[in-house]
Design goal:
Blueprint (H helix, E strand, L loop, with lengths): L6 E7 L3 E7 L5 E3 L9 E2 L1 E5 L2 E4 L6 H4 L4 E3 L14 H4 L7 E3 L2 E8 L2 E6 H20 L4 E8 L5 H13 L4 E6 H9 L29 E9 L4 E9 L2 E10 L4 H20 L8 H18 L4 E10 L2 E8 H7 L1 H17 L9 E5 L6 H7 L10 E3 L7 H15 L5 H8 L20 E6 L4 H6 L3 E2 L2 E7 L7 E8 L6 E18 L17 E10 L5 E6 L6 E8 L4 E8 L7 E6 L1
Parallel strand pairs: 1-11, 11-12, 13-18, 18-19
Antiparallel strand pairs: 1-2, 2-3, 2-4, 5-6, 5-7, 8-9, 9-10, 13-14, 14-15, 16-17, 20-22, 20-24, 21-22, 23-27, 24-25, 24-26, 27-28, 28-29
Helix pairs in contact: 3-4, 5-11, 6-7, 9-10
Amino acid sequence: MSQEEGAVIGINLGNTYGSIACINQHGRADVIANENGERQIATRIAFNGDQVYTGNEATPQLVRNAPNVIDGFVNLVGRKYSELGEDDLKRKSSTVLDINDTPSFKVEIDGKETTLSAHDVLVRFIGVLYDAAKDFMSGVPIVGAVLSVPIWFNDAQIKALETAAADAGLKVLQVIPAAAAALVAYGLTSPSDAGDLPAHPDGEQGEPYAPEKTLDRNVVVVDFGGSSLDVTVVAARAGLYSVLAYEHDKSLGGRALDDLLVQYFAKEFTKKTKITIGEQDARAWAKLRNEAEVSKRSLSASNSAQCSVESLAEGVDFSGSVNRMRFNMLAGDIYQRAQSIVTKALDAAKLDASQVDEVVLAGGAARLTGLAEQLSLLFAEDSATHITQSIDSDQVIARGNAIYAQAIVHVPKDAEERKFVESLANTRLENTDALSAPATTRPIGVVLDAPTGADAERVEKHIVDNQLFVTVIPASTPVPARRAFRFPVAAGATSSLVRIAQGTPSVRVDTIQPEPLDEEDEEDEPLEPEEVKSAYVKPDAQRIVELVVPHANSAKTVTVELIVLSGGQVTVEAKVDDAADVAASAKISA
């Protein structure tokens, strides 16, 4: 899109922090900074006299002016006060009030008591982000934005978000799930040419997936944000995403980690000064919390962090430090709970950890190393599962939104696809039948005799009854679906047999006994046997089709195309040496 036509942006509107991304001159998504150089902007507004503070500038107001500070309002929009829970109402800032069943706040603006609904506050905040984007664009008009929301947002919340954006003067191209935005940022399921999207798995400098993994993968998106943990299990199939399971925990997030650091530093202060911070000393706790959050962020980039607070309590200053190892010990329970939520989501998706190809980390709290270290315990050391976090986790969703927005506006304006995509912003979920599609319930693939020689060791854990099942169309693939594969012809052969079958995903568990202790180590505790899991597919005894492909004895390769239609019909076509004519075919009704 040219400068004359305008630019698009992506906005990650979190309940704790927001961020904005655009497409730079190199075609890459970048998170932009506001006038204060901040890329992560606190979802917070404060009023002090005739002054209005937004974003990170509003945070210091929590110390002396907390009743006039409004935060945590994004998740309130589109909901009735009577629908809110205790977690929604608990806060250190302005109290959430019930004004005609609408979540609202009362603050003093320029000496006058003013009532603002959650919608009013959100309009102001989106306006701030929009202004920051316009300043960064230096006169290039912004023609639209893609916003992301948690998957648990309902229709009313999404509509309220779109309305607030419109009231702030921003055109919404589409609202997408935050997990989808994270996947788009890495280009995980895009079959586009290299360079169209950041290379996977590690941005511009990353290596691509192995060829057999480029189209179809099982991905877990772990969004560890400021106020909650969202885990989404996604079947990524050739550019289409299907949510297999989802888990949400409001008790886990960056604030829970802040609480740990606040208590740790409070004890350190008491140990050094013999002064105990009183429970009612809101100012002291606010000071300590603000600095503890800064320390937490520092630990994502360095092995230690300082925490300094002037006149913390009774006029006494505090200066302390914490290293990453100590912090990870403090946060161990939270990380273990996060791992259990991931396991719960996998159980709901009926997947074992060994069947996961990718774990994508998103959210500011995911930048801390402890989460990735804990999640890695779910997977064997030699597992093919990749934990992806090369893009800063607090930027990945905004960048994905920007890439998605760019994809929308690249579709020609007069194309039916463009009209359809733009109509989605005004389409409620109950009216989106066209977006749903039937999917395969079991994997479909080719059955081979067990290989011998060097190849045997590589696939030995996948062999069942002396047969190897190679998945061509995985389970949870939306249909109609088309896949193709090519195999070499045995020297001198005049025909090849192609056996297509469905299979049952299974997990093999091997127990590895520890090495015996040396005499010098007899006093050590004996090591426990280790269980190693590996995923494989057991082919059905009954084949979908066994296709004999005739060819000359000089043939080199056979290419097989497999098509599955929504009614269960399966078509198999085989061609020899890239010939235009089909050498053999079969159609079967499943």
